């Protein structure tokens, strides 16, 4: 069997078997080259230029490594070559269904464009995988085909299923430790410049199947916590960066304005239409001569010229209150309307000026500690699963596993101060804090100084004068 050699900056040289190559050499898989792994974050972190393509190859590689290691270290598992191949292909194809700008498509755009639609990128991955197999006449056993689809979707009750440990490898919905995270955490840190001390290869080499689930050596408990904390850091510092989010909302607005013409929200209904929906949708909109796209084009012009929707302020909910809040577009829009109602008479804020984001950042299992659902084994007894209390790992591990934040942005950079004042009045009215304690609940570094008047960034586009030769007064920018 001839193997192709693929060079990856994270994992080094990877050997690709003919089945893997046959799936990669399709329009369905090559589409992933045109989907940025971190979506809009690339416009803030220019090093984060990696795509879903290389991440998918990396996940396939790690999936193969994990099941091959288990096969070698535990021959009694009787892992078949077909099972190993299925897990590897599930890793390869698990992200086929992502839309433009990754999670922005299914988490932000579709709920606004098609309210009530129950669709996820995993659904898209299964749909595209089915179409890929049929369209390219891939020779695959029907039972293996079904297993791959199930492995892509994952199952939270995997330990109760026959060969359930296989579901722990790619999309672990039981405790969230899987090779998908192994790859994207390492890869995203590498390309965004975030430092991390967690070691995914060590976790992989310390894995063992006990009682139909993948467990890890007890000495790796801290490494597991380090993985989840690194993921939290990526969300906090990169994925939800306030400028990235402002840019993302601009893209969402542009796609919503273009949707009646471009059918962006309907593309995933037809696999052969969806394979051509990528991050390149912005350029398609921009170069169109259709007058119905003028509103979308205006937004994208602002996007290209960095006239970004401005971050205004944020409020951290107390943990007890935050755990009861369920993020939804409807709730965010309701809060935005409430903020507008708290404006002063001369603020002139309207509903279109305010964007609210309910942000939840956690250790991948909402407000639960994922390590409580992970079993370990001791070097003295490798066949008995044990739980490890976090106090036995470190006294510095957090007691709260999720934070809930209300963040506010504005589409009009001239109204930043007015929106902030309205938001702070809203918070005073809707929290248990007394009025005189207001200053304690805000980040003082975000307080806009009195007399501050933001103005939209203006550019002199005249061919007769160069902005390089003119000194411009840059207004104070709270995003910097």
UniProtKB/TrEMBL annotation:
InterPro entries: dGTPase-like, HD/PDEase_dom, HD_assoc_2, HD_domain. This is HD domain-containing protein. One of its GO terms (biological process) is dGTP catabolic process. Residues 48-194 form the HD/PDEase domain. Keywords: Hydrolase. One of its GO terms (molecular function) is dGTPase activity. The keyword Hydrolase applies. GO terms for cellular component: nucleus. Pfam families: HD, HD_assoc_2. The lineage of its organism: Eukaryota, Fungi, Fungi incertae sedis, Cryptomycota, Cryptomycota incertae sedis.
